[in-house]
Specification:
globular, two-stranded antiparallel ribbon, 437 residues, 1% strand, mainly alpha, 63% helix, single chain
Length: 437
């Protein structure tokens, strides 16, 4: 347990177990609505890993069950190790080396000396964004949809927490389809999920240093990659779904643009949907799968291989095509160890997704598109589904549970573990090149 990455995994597993026990209580569901323990485990894992997949309708939960899910989302998104370190800081007014390293493994801070100010900043930013979005959504529900004030405040809070933490769990049977043409709901929630997907180190640097020339390489890559995907995703979704009678086709121009925007932004991080995902065209499902696999920024509430990993591999490819000996990104040379870590993360991610996709194809008798879509959604902790989750056999559900956990803690713990295992080689073997290509 000297490696903090191991403690991160243990902490997430413990939180999932606690959530499962709470969701198994009789009063966690509406009368006559309780399900098997495996379904409670699935939902608990989905909430803690801020995924959003569920094997049953979340509206079957009682108020107690919804609050359990809400708390699990908040703790999972904020990072259980970060919260533990924050409580230790407030209680003892000091942070030991172990607490700093635990939080470092969860939120990806390179310098442990930044932990004290960073954790405090995380708490402030999280509460400010969630409160602002909750207020906008609540006022809209109260004034326009005639929802009672108390219910509007609760629903606004739930969906703001789910959006900023990129969970994608909604309190409505059709997710957010009923709000597809509402700019207040769509833009406020999409803004929250984009901010949550940037990553706390990026957000803190944006707060401290407004001018782009003062940003470090990580922030520049994250902002540039996020911007490119935020533009490309909605454009492709709008182009492929514009005339689809089951999705954007019947909508007016304004609703089409809003829905295309939201449905193109959500797959990278969140999992909310304003159209029927199962009715999307095949090209749209492929684009959505790619966006989910790339994911959000490192140390964020989103999943995937991370946008910086994807961008870095693009620069590796460009350097190889040009014949450069070094990989240079924005006038900075990237160490070979970082490149190897990026390649390792991507290869293991592809292997994990392919393995679970195979399990789904065999056990659930699915075609490739929905099986691959469901697997990538679980690994990237997105939560979008073509509508097959509830009908999956137990073997497939267990496979997705493991994949959600791996997708949430896998890249972080893997990179941390690789960093801790680095050692100086005292000798080198003779060099020889195999044939490539």
């Amino acid at each position: 347990m000297r490696n903090p990455a191991q403690l991160v995994v243990v902490a997430f597993v413990a939180l999932i177990a606690l959530g499962t026990l709470l969701l198994c209580l009789p009063w966690a569901f509406d009368p006559g609505r309780s399900g098997p323990v495996l379904d409670s485990l699935f939902l608990s894992t989905s909430a803690v890993t801020v995924t959003g997949l569920s094997t049953f309708d979340v509206t079957n939960l009682s108020l107690f069950g919804e609050l359990v899910v809400l708390i699990l989302i908040q703790i999972g998104g904020f990072g259980i190790m970060t919260i533990g370190s924050l409580l230790a800081l407030f209680a003892a007014r000091r942070m030991g080396l172990r607490q700093r390293m635990l939080a470092q493994a969860e939120i990806g801070v390179v310098d442990h000396r930044e932990m004290r100010s960073l954790i405090g900043g995380i708490a402030v930013i999280t509460l400010m964004v969630e409160a602002a979005v909750a207020l906008v959504v609540a006022v809209r529900l109260w004034t326009y949809y005639d929802v009672e004030l108390g219910a509007a405040l609760y629903e606004g809070l739930f969906h703001s927490v789910a959006a900023f933490n990129n969970a994608g769990i909604a309190l409505y049977r059709d997710n957010l389809i009923g709000f597809s043409g509402d700019p207040f709901i769509v833009l406020s929630l999409s803004g929250a999920l984009i901010l949550g997907g940037l990553g706390f180190p990026v957000i803190m640097q944006l707060v401290r240093k407004v001018r782009p020339r003062h940003w470090n390489l990580h922030t520049r890559l994250t902002i540039a990659g996020t911007g490119a995907l935020v533009v490309t995703g909605p454009l492709l979704v709008g182009m492929f779904e514009w005339g689809n009678p089951a999705t954007l086709g019947p909508m007016g121009l304004g609703e089409k643009l809003l829905s295309a925007w939201f449905q193109g932004v959500s797959p990278r991080t969140a999992g909310f949907n304003v159209v029927d995902v199962g009715a999307m065209e095949e090209p749209t499902l492929l684009v959505t799968t790619i966006l989910m696999f790339i994911g959000a920024g490192p140390a964020s509430t989103g999943g995937g291989i991370k946008v910086t990993t994807f961008a870095l591999l693009g620069f590796v490819l460009w350097s190889e095509v040009r014949g450069d000996t070094d990989v240079n990104v924005l006038h900075r040379r990237v160490p070979a160890t970082v490149i190897r870590q990026a390649v390792t993360v991507v290869i293991l991610a592809i292997g994990s997704v392919m393995a679970v996709t195979t399990v789904l194809l065999v056990s659930a008798d699915l075609t490739l598109t929905p099986a691959l879509f469901e697997s990538v959604s679980a690994f990237a902790t997105v939560g979008l589904s073509t509508g097959i989750t509830a009908d999956l056999p137990d073997v497939s559900k267990i496979a997705l549970i493991l994949l959600m956990l791996a997708g949430r803690v896998g890249p972080t713990t893997l990179v941390t573990a690789l960093a801790y295992r680095q050692r100086l080689q005292r000798f080198h073997y003779p060099q020889e090149r195999p044939i490539i290509g």
